[in-house]
Amino acid sequence: MAFVTIPSHRMPIDIDGTEIAYRGGAYNDGVALWCNSTKKGQLNDEISVDTVEWTSEGVALIVWVFFPEAREVEQMYIGGSAYYYSTTFGELQGSADSTNGVDGTWETATWPNGVAYYHNPDGTKWRTGVKPVSFSGPMKVLRFRITTIYAARLRDLHIYGRKKATETPDDVVFTDVNGTPITMLMDVGDRPEGTTVVQSIKIQNTSTTKIANNVNLQLNHPDFLLAFSEDGPWSSTLDIASIGVGSLSSTVYIKNPLGPPLLVLGPKAARLIAAVGSWT
To answer: Which whole-number Å values give the CA distances from 248 to 172, 217, 280, in the listed order?
Structure first.
C-alpha cells in the first residue's frame, strides 16, 4: 500500500537528550516518574507494546516530553491502550519556557486533520496514523493526558519536526547530493521482492565556526546498507574523518536490497544516525 507523505523527520527522542516523564493525576501535580532509555526506545520504535502506565482506576495518565532545545513540532503519532474500556485523549499542550512541566506559559495545540491518538493501534498505524499538529511557534516542553476508567497505558510516541533555527548552531544535517537539506522523511515506497534501490545523500556541517571531526554514520537495519561508492563495499556504519565549516561530505549511498520471495511484508523504518566525535 502507498503511504501518505510525511513532510518532517521523526525526532530520535530516545537518543537525542529528550526526557520523558509521567504520573497519574493532573498537570499541576508535577512529574512523578521518568522513562529510562529502554522505555524511550520502546515508545519511539515501530513495535507497539505497553510501555508507560498508571494503574489507579479513574486517574488520568499525564505524559511530559522535555526537549533539549526549542523545536518545531509538525506531526505526531500516539498509540495507547487500556483495560476493558477505550481511552479518552486530552489536549496536547506545549510550552516555550516551562522548566518543570508545571510552570511557564502553556498553549493548546490544534489538530487540523484530527487527533493522532489511537486506542490499541494495529501494526501499521505508526505509518498510517501520523497527523499534522500546530503550535504558534517552537516549544521546549509538551504534555498531554490519557483518561480511562481503568489503567491507562501509552505504547507509542512518535514526534515529527525539527529544531528551532537558532538552536544548536554546531550541528550536522543530511542533504541531497546538491547540498539542499532533506526536510522530510525519505521513503523508498512500495518495494517488490527481489529488487534493489540505491539512494544518495551528503552530510553538511552547519557550524559557521567549527570543524566536525570523526563523524560516524550508523544505519543499523538488516534491510539497508551504506557505502561511499555505488559499487560498495557496503556496511552498516561509515566514518568520515572531518567535515569543514559549512562544507559537505562526499556522497553517501544507501542501498535497500530485498531478497527473493517469500519475505515478511509490512512497513519498515531504518534510522540513519550521525554522531560527531568532536568540534574544533
So the answer is: 9, 14, 17
Domain CATH number, residue 100: 2.60.120.260
Same-domain pairing of 207 and 140: no
Among residues 163, 196, 221, which one ends one of the domains? 163
Across the chain, which has 280 residues, the per-10-residue mean pLDDT values are 86 97 95 97 94 86 97 97 74 98 98 94 92 98 90 93 95 97 89 92 98 96 94 96 98 94 86 97
157 pairs with which residues across the strands? 78
> What is residue 38's three-state secondary structure?
helix
Total number of domains in the chain? 2
Amino acid at residue number 48: S
Whether residue 3 lies inside any domain: the answer is no
Question: pLDDT at position 59, please?
Answer: 86
Q: Do the Cβ atoms of 251 and 199 come closer than 8 Å?
A: no
**Other CB atoms within 10 A of residue 93 CB:** 20
Q: Is 4 part of a structural domain of the chain?
A: no
What's at 1, amino acid-wise? M
Residue 208 per-residue DSSP state = S
Task: Identify the domain containing residue 36 by its residue range.
Answer: 9-163
DSSP for 170-182 reads: S-EEEE-TTS-B-
**Residue-wise DSSP of 70-114:** EEEEEEEEEEEEESSS--EE---EEESS-SSSSSS--EE-B-TT-
Judge if 179 and 151 occupy the same domain: no
The model's pTM is 0.95
pLDDT at 110: 98
Nine-digit cell at 179?
547540498
